[in-house]
């Protein structure tokens, strides 16, 4: 059987941040890398859609301690098909025409100490989609055959997109939370893009979920997804007391904090029970973790920074979603609407995820 052929343009539409702190702009004059210019191991992906993440907003603002490279095409939750593979690429695990996903970790060396230990996200030579290399807010993107994630046939592209970042991030945090079925997990930010998937992965793993967020829309979403208890932080007078009341006075076994709020972290130390795990996921720009050293030690609390996931975590997270156990709740929009999407993210008006059609 002959390999498929593709008509690849020389220019494309893409959403570009010219420099940090400026508005994202959709442009129609961005170059597409020629298949002849692809290096061994690189592949060109024609995108169907891409998710939008708070990280993309931070990349545009440049408010994280690690600064992005600009000018920049953002985005790191892309799904599309491979239309070209670099010459002299040996033993490629993917092929032309295959549907794949592009993640935050665009590529890792696979040979450094961190990669060999399965911590590819901490690779000393890591490339980050939409941050240090161009990302998925475009019609075509250059990626890497060893790092793209194959997408199963039984999940739609739009449904798979945010699993590649939000899904794998919360899945890994839950996986390493050292909790068992029936134990209590608190999810601050449960109605958000990461949080609503954390509810579902936690229930899939048999955990009991306390969802914390604000507003009726997010309450309904969390309860529909199976949360065992709900706390509205805009109404609650004492979140720590509320968590302890739900857990018969003992506190929760773990907290996976997906919110970027400083309070979401400081409260967790108080409502976790002895030997509880605080899984730090959400990334406030400059906030500090204000934890009582005495009670962290006295209660045996573990504070665990959990940063996206490796290639295997991504495969597992996608497979669970493809089984129907986890669904990303999303709104479908056009790439041309990205500036308004950024504004809505800034103002906390997005429940679930935003997926942009790019083709």
UniProtKB/TrEMBL annotation:
<protein>
    <recommendedName>
        <fullName>alcohol dehydrogenase</fullName>
        <ecNumber>1.1.1.1</ecNumber>
    </recommendedName>
</protein>
<keyword id="KW-0479">Metal-binding</keyword>
<dbReference type="InterPro" id="IPR036291">
    <property type="entry name" value="NAD(P)-bd_dom_sf"/>
</dbReference>
<comment type="similarity">
    <text>Belongs to the zinc-containing alcohol dehydrogenase family.</text>
</comment>
<dbReference type="InterPro" id="IPR013149">
    <property type="entry name" value="ADH-like_C"/>
</dbReference>
<dbReference type="InterPro" id="IPR013154">
    <property type="entry name" value="ADH-like_N"/>
</dbReference>
<dbReference type="GO" id="GO:0004022">
    <property type="term" value="F:alcohol dehydrogenase (NAD+) activity"/>
</dbReference>
<dbReference type="InterPro" id="IPR020843">
    <property type="entry name" value="ER"/>
</dbReference>
<dbReference type="GO" id="GO:0005737">
    <property type="term" value="C:cytoplasm"/>
</dbReference>
<keyword id="KW-0560">Oxidoreductase</keyword>
<dbReference type="InterPro" id="IPR011032">
    <property type="entry name" value="GroES-like_sf"/>
</dbReference>
<keyword id="KW-0520">NAD</keyword>
<dbReference type="GO" id="GO:0046872">
    <property type="term" value="F:metal ion binding"/>
</dbReference>
<keyword id="KW-0862">Zinc</keyword>
<feature type="domain" description="Enoyl reductase (ER)">
    <location>
        <begin position="21"/>
        <end position="356"/>
    </location>
</feature>
<dbReference type="Pfam" id="PF08240">
    <property type="entry name" value="ADH_N"/>
</dbReference>
<dbReference type="Pfam" id="PF00107">
    <property type="entry name" value="ADH_zinc_N"/>
</dbReference>
């Amino acid at each position: 059987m002959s390999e498929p052929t593709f008509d690849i343009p020389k220019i494309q539409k893409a959403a570009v941040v010219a420099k940090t702190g400026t508005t994202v702009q959709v442009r129609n004059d961005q170059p597409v890398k020629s298949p002849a210019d692809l290096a061994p191991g690189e592949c060109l992906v024609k995108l169907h859609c891409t998710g939008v993440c708070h990280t993309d907003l931070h990349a545009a603002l440049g408010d994280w301690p690690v600064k992005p490279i600009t000018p920049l095409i953002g985005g790191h939750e892309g799904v599309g098909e491979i239309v070209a593979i670099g010459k002299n690429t040996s033993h490629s695990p993917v092929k032309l025409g295959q549907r794949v996903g592009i993640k935050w970790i665009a590529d890792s060396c696979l040979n450094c100490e961190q990669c060999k230990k399965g911590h590819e996200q901490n690779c000393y030579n890591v490339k980050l989609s939409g941050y240090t290399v161009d990302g998925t807010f475009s019609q075509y993107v250059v990626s890497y055959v060893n790092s793209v994630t194959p997408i199963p046939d039984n999940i739609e592209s739009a449904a798979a997109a945010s699993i590649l970042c939000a899904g794998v991030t919360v899945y890994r945090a839950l996986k390493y939370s050292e909790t068992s079925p029936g134990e209590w997990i608190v999810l601050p930010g449960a109605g958000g893009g990461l949080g609503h998937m954390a509810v579902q992965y936690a229930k899939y793993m048999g955990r009991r979920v306390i969802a914390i967020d604000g507003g009726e829309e997010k309450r309904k979403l969390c309860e529909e997804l199976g949360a065992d208890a709900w706390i509205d932080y805009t109404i609650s007078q004492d979140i720590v007391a509320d968590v302890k009341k739900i857990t018969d006075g003992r506190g929760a076994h773990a907290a996976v904090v997906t919110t970027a709020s400083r309070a979401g972290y400081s409260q967790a130390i108080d409502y976790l029970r002895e030997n509880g795990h605080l899984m730090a996921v959400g990334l406030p720009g400059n906030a500090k973790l204000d934890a009582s050293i005495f009670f962290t030690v006295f209660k045996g609390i573990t504070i665990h920074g959990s940063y996206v996931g490796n290639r295997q975590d991504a495969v597992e997270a996608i497979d669970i979603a493809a089984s129907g156990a986890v669904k990303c709740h999303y709104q479908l929009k056009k790439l041309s609407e990205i500036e308004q999407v950024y504004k809505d993210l800034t103002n906390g008006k997005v429940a679930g995820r935003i997926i942009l059609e790019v083709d």
